[in-house]
Amino acid sequence: MSLLAFGLLLSAPAWAHGVEASLRAIPAFEIQARYDSGEPMGSARVTVFAPTDPTTPWQEGQTDARGRFLLQPDPNLTGLWQVRIRQAGHGVLVNVPVGEEFPQTEGIPSASPPFGPLQRGVMAACVIWGCLGTALFFSRPRQSGYAAVESPPVSGSPGSGISGSQAGSSALE
After folding, report:
1. How far is CA 52 from CA 58, 74, 76, 85, 106, in A?
2. For residue 88, what are the β-bridge partners?
3. pLDDT of 114 higher than 90
4. Rounded to two decimals, what is the model's pTM?
5. Cα 143 to chain center, whole Å?
6. In terms of DSSP bridges, do strands 90-98 and 79-87 run parallel, antiparallel, or are they unpaired?
7. Which of 71, 89, 102, 122 has the most Cβ atoms closer than 10 angstroms to its Cβ?
8. Sign of CA dihedral 53, 55, 59, 63
């Protein structure tokens, strides 16, 4: 016991590990993707394109379970950043303005606006026209696969009293 007490008295004081943290304010954009029904596009594929090269992906990732994706673009690359979100054949393209020439506004519209009354009317007319055309197509009388050819009446049938050679000459006359 005395050795343990002596060891504790002679030991150097213990210092905790030093930890530092730095914080830099970088503008970030939270993008939320949902279907028209309001259901979030969870785990959707996200591709981000910088304004300097709109053909090569700058970042790739996916949305979280609630359809959200956090974009932290390089503040030195100003312009319109394109964010493409796709899942199961559905997708949307969001343009995110970055830079001093673009005012930062809340709720950047990310989807196309809803259809107007004229567009809805045209779509309804097209659906009605398609249904009517289909119904008329299937309601027409069906014809057999062979064309109906009318043959001339045969006058040399048995019991008519005309022989076959006479029937043939009368048909040609």
Report:
1. 10, 11, 11, 20, 24
2. none
3. no
4. 0.49
5. 42
6. antiparallel
7. 71
8. positive
